[in-house]
Write a structure and sequence with these properties.
ATP hydrolysis activity; 2 domains; OB fold (Dihydrolipoamide Acetyltransferase, E2P); alpha+beta; globular; membrane
């Protein structure tokens, strides 16, 4: 297990980068604590796999350092870093049995035979392949082979970190849930430092202690699922986390009041902005439907009942926004306005969250 420090880290795939836009991974300075489980979450091309490959040693950064427990490992080979990595697509030895595949990294470390048997049996049970341990990997399905890859990553108990690069892509949905549960249990039992790359918010939020949200090569927020939901530090976080994601409204901000079109919105606190593009972010759960009176003009486009709640799709000034209602709550028949719950309003300038006056924005 190791504390992982990213010190002035950045990477460009170009030989002579001339500006920030040339960097696939923009400058990072972060400490990832020993024994915590992190998820790197973001859309395709945001830099999460680049960062994972730098941590593992498969890629050398253009600038900066990687430290494990304060030791600079930037120039160390992958094998010297004592990490285990599981990739998106299965990497197995077809001519070996499942048992031999799982035992392979342990034999390379010259572990005692009885300890190898114990660990292989344990991991075989965890991945649901006890009955297939003596079967050749050749001919197994893609998801079975990926379970072997996962097992081989999990079989070592002495690693500095376990790295997972979208490992459940080829796994069927039910098994995804089972394997995520097993990974959580592994983390709870052994306290490995784990980093899990995914573009799936459900995987990230159910797996990790802390979620690292990346956008355009930059880490825009690190936080617990609750922090990401309640206080998105960037409009992308609000949009990407949640289903549906956060609604964003262009707004003029003046102290404790905002104006959206002709409607005036009371804010829960006073805000100071610096003249950039200002917006309000409001999750669907905090939008209220109204008939007449104050509020922002809105028109219901359609209603989608998804079981636990209803999603109300509305037109607001030519843009589609979303509200939700608990199952069993009727939709007001004459809805022509929306209002916001004050506690659900976040203020943004140039896409970054603005803290109320007198408060410091969390890192």
């Amino acid at each position: 297990m190791a504390k992982i420090t990213l010190d002035n880290l950045a990477h460009s795939y170009l030989p002579n980068p001339s500006g920030e836009d040339d960097y696939a991974l923009k400058e990072l300075n972060h400490d990832w604590q020993d024994g915590e489980a992190y998820a790197l979450l973001g859309s395709s091309g945001c830099g999460k796999s680049t960062l994972l490959n730098i941590i593992s040693g498969l890629l050398h950064p253009s600038q900066g350092r990687i430290l494990f427990d304060g030791q600079d490992v930037t120039h160390q080979a992958t094998a010297e870093r004592n990490i285990a990595q599981v990739f998106q697509f299965p990497v197995v030895y077809d001519t070996m049995t499942v048992r031999e595949n799982l035992a392979f990294p342990l034999k390379n470390r010259r572990m005692p035979a009885d300890e190898i048997r114990r660990l292989v049996q344990k991991v075989g049970h965890m991945i649901g392949m006890e009955a297939q341990l003596d079967r050749k990997a050749r001919g197994l399905t893609a998801d079975a082979k990926q379970k072997i890859s996962l097992g081989r990553g999990m079989v070592r108990e002495d690693v500095n970190a376990l790295l997972f690069d979208e490992p459940l892509t080829v796994i069927d949905p039910h098994m995804k849930w089972e394997l995520r549960t097993q990974l959580k249990k592994l983390h709870h039992d052994f306290g490995h430092t784990m980093i899990y790359v995914t573009h799936d918010q459900t995987e990230a939020l159910t797996f990790a202690d802390k979620v690292v949200v990346m956008y355009d090569g930059r880490v825009v927020q690190i936080g617990t699922p609750q922090e990401l939901f309640e206080r998105p530090a960037h409009t992308f976080v609000g949009y990407f986390i949640g289903s549906p994601g956060m609604n964003v409204f262009d707004a003029e901000i003046s102290g404790s009041e905002a104006r959206i079109g002709e409607a005036r919105i009371a804010l829960p606190a006073s805000y100071a902005t610096a003249g950039g593009k200002t917006q309000l972010g409001v999750r669907p759960e905090f939008i209220r439907l109204a008939e007449g009176g104050d509020g922002i003009p809105a028109k219901i486009l359609r209603i989608e009942d998804v079981g636990r709640h209803k999603i109300i799709r509305l037109d607001v000034a030519g843009r589609e926004i979303n509200a939700t209602l608990p199952e069993g709550t009727p939709v007001p028949a004459g809805t022509d306005r929306i209002t916001f719950d004050p506690e659900g309003i976040n203020v943004y300038e140039n896409d970054w969250r603005v803290a109320p006056k007198g408060q410091r924005e969390a890192a």
